[in-house]
Design goal:
Elements lengths: L23 H4 L6 H23 L5 H8 L3 H29 L1 H21 L3 H15 L3 H11 L5 H30 L1 H22 L12 H6 L3 H10 L1 H32 L4 H28 L4 H21 L7 H11 L2 H15 L5 H30 L9 H8 L3 H21 L1
Helix pairs in contact: 2-5, 2-6, 2-7, 2-8, 2-9, 4-5, 4-6, 4-17, 5-6, 5-7, 5-9, 7-8, 7-17, 8-9, 8-13, 8-16, 12-13, 12-14, 12-16, 12-17, 12-19, 13-15, 13-16, 14-15, 14-16, 16-17, 17-18
């Protein structure tokens, strides 16, 4: 017995639907790249370079700040911790702002906040006002990197985004280089207030550059924005959709685990460790911090090239950097007497140069797993990771230094630094476990 199919069944072939305004093809043409794209990126990245100068300025002024405000290690760490805490807390709100109002407006606001915070810091003579000014600075800093990534996503083809992201990080290291080479010398010769005032006033030129020359997207993409109007209906839903994507969470933990060792060393504890625990002069310590910046720039170029050729390079880069960092610090901290030779210190600093570039792999996972209309939000979630790890490590090292050094600032021994720096292995272990766990989920969802 056979069953005759229903006569009302429609034909199997139907005409393809016409594109609507919500169709990706209608709203997201392929970015052009070329000179215009590089110009837009260059203007945007100038703000990020300025933000890194502001962010890392305390790294070469830590000992001066302790003397100026009469504070110990825990209070000194609070400056960087609060700045990083504000930065991390602002990542998702900033991502939403970038998705809705465009990176240009967010960058302009960021420059204003950076300059205001640094100017207040320049004239602060007590701990509380200085702390508040670093919080304002952290808020402005939070608005830069995600905005530049969104500019790159709008102006460059998708295949080029990993390389441009690494170039962005490399350019930021140029700002760090300004801090370690120029700012350290100016601070020593000109003093606290003139130095930090000059940094604050750099924002005037950068603000004008962004206001006059930056465009959010190529001309053919700017007129129609129906998708963004639709997005405004559900902020919570957008954040939740980003978080539910395993690639976003994997990106966050990669960023968390790879970035914090180099950040902790460069932002605050590197100079005190080299000067007080290893007996180096400030000039020699500054030279090693400069080496950290140069190493980071070199790794950024290498990783950027590798990631632009194949996505298979992501996990080997991440696990290679984690293994080298963990092993390198184990050798340094286990060295008898707590005074490793110079060649070993140079070695761990070179290794930590891979931390920042490896953390950008996390942004690649988020970018690959989220649609373009929520890339700012997804990038914000991922970008919280490394700064949360940095905050945890800065605080832990500061507390342990004070606990192990009853005589306070200026009396931190090599042994105290050795045990305090062992704290790094706590976030390193937690982050590695989470990467392994989420890596399997992402692979299963592919």
């Amino acid at each position: 017995m056979t069953v005759e199919p229903a006569r009302s069944a429609p034909p199997l072939s139907v005409p393809a639907p016409r594109p609507t305004v919500e169709s990706p093809a209608a709203t997201a043409p392929t970015p052009p790249g070329g000179r215009a794209a590089w110009l837009a990126w260059s203007v945007g990245v100038s703000v990020y370079i300025l933000a890194v100068i502001h962010r890392t300025s305390l790294g070469v002024a830590g000992l001066d700040a302790a003397e100026r405000f009469g504070i110990g290690a825990s209070a000194l760490a609070t400056f960087s911790i609060l700045q990083v805490l504000v930065y991390a807390a602002m990542q998702v709100p900033v991502g939403l702002l970038v998705d809705r109002f465009g990176p240009r407006r967010v960058l302009l606001l960021g420059v204003l906040l950076l300059s205001t915070g640094q100017l207040a810091f320049a004239f602060s003579s007590s701990f509380a006002p200085a702390l508040a000014s670093r919080a304002v600075l952290g808020c402005g800093d939070a608005m830069t990197f995600i905005s530049v990534l969104r500019i790159a996503a709008r102006w460059f083809p998708a295949a080029k985004n990993p390389f441009v992201a690494q170039l962005t990080g490399l350019a930021g290291m140029g700002g760090n280089l300004v801090t370690t080479v120029v700012l350290a010398q100016v601070l020593h010769s000109e003093g606290w207030t003139p130095t930090f005032t000059a940094i604050a006033l750099l924002g005037v030129a950068v603000f004008a550059l962004v206001a006059l020359f930056l465009k959010d997207a190529p001309a053919q993409e700017r007129p129609a924005r129906p998708v963004e109007r639709r997005e405004r209906a559900g902020i919570g839903r957008q954040v939740l959709d980003c978080w539910r994507e395993p690639g976003t969470r994997l990106g966050l933990w990669i960023h968390f685990t790879t970035q914090f060792p180099g950040n902790t060393f460069g932002l605050l504890w590197g100079l005190p460790y080299l000067v007080e625990a290893q007996g180096m002069s400030r000039a020699a310590a500054g030279g090693l911090l400069t080496l950290l910046v140069l190493s980071t720039m070199s790794f950024g170029l290498v990783f950027g090239r590798a990631l632009s050729r194949t996505a298979r390079a992501r996990m080997p880069i991440v696990f290679g950097v984690l293994a080298a960092t963990g092993l390198g610090w184990a050798l340094v901290l286990a060295w008898p007497g707590g005074h490793p030779p110079t060649w070993l210190l140079v070695g761990i600093i070179l290794v930590m140069g891979g931390n920042g570039p490896a953390s950008l792999v996390g942004l690649d996972y988020a970018r690959a797993r989220n649609p373009v209309e929520r890339l700012g939000t997804a990038s914000g979630i991922v970008n919280m990771g490394g700064f949360i790890g940095t905050m945890i490590t800065l605080f832990g090292v500061g507390v342990l230094l004070d606990a192990l050094s009853p005589d306070g600032a200026g009396a931190y021994s090599a042994s105290a630094f050795r045990w305090a720096f062992c704290w790094q292995y706590v976030p390193l272990a937690v982050g590695t476990v989470m990467i392994l766990r989420l890596r399997r989920k992402v692979a299963a969802a592919s």
